Amino acid sequence: MAQDWPARPLRFLVAAGPGSSLDVLARVIGERLRDGLGQQVVVDNRPAGGGTVATAAGAQSAPDGHTLLISFNGPLSLAPFLYTKLPYDPARDLAPVIVTSTSPNILAVNADLPVRTVADWVRHAKDAAGRLTYASVGNASSSHLTMELFRSVAGFDAVHSPYNGAPPAAASVARNETQAVFAAPTALAAHLQSGRVRALAVTSASRYALFPDLPTLAESGYPGFEAMLWNGILVAAGTPQALVGRLNGAINAILAHPDARNRIVGAGLDPAGGRPEAFAALIKAEAARWAPLIRKLAIRLD
After folding, report:
1. What is the reported pTM?
2. What domain range includes position 111?
């Protein structure tokens, strides 16, 4: 089978909407896969269900290497603890290929609020006594749980308003329909440039190279706070290891190519790469890390 692959166009399932960081990655990688493999790569955005709809479709696809899935923290490591009935088991039904990128979340607020620092936001939220609303990029997302973690350690209340993907979530903060969000730099860039949204902090352990003047949450009074975004490409379990290896090699090369790296970095992401085994280990480790918080907060999404 590996010798005949690809025999037809590839379908690239994206667990987020058009304009999202995952969409940028899928199109950069898809273009170069098309050129290198001589087959079209059709991007299929499915942001519903916090990415679980696309992830389920990838898990249920034929294990022949013609359907790729790019998914992220929420559907891969968090969803099994958030849903009573999930139509896939990440460990059983999916074969990791490669980690594509990482980035911190950015805590951002509507620029009309009297808020310029993390301390200002916490004080403002406490004064509002649960009347503020925060956006997330969807239920079961890192965006959602990062704010829940922050709420629990900072001691403020706010109402959760989930959206289907990062672009509409960020836009809701820009319009002041919601007042805050944790989101990827990609989704926030235009609103930060327009001045409608203000960035307060990043969730990485150290300052982020693309926003060097932005403090971390750890620096802002919450030592040890870290919540990274990550994503990667997977195929259906049972896909021949030879095809997984070919895809891994091809995508590692793409992520190392200067033009592709520039486009990915320009979207606010850090290109990753590596072996399938490393991606499998990341999914498992993140599940173990977040499961206790999910249980403690009793978060259920069904």
Report:
1. 0.81
2. 106-202
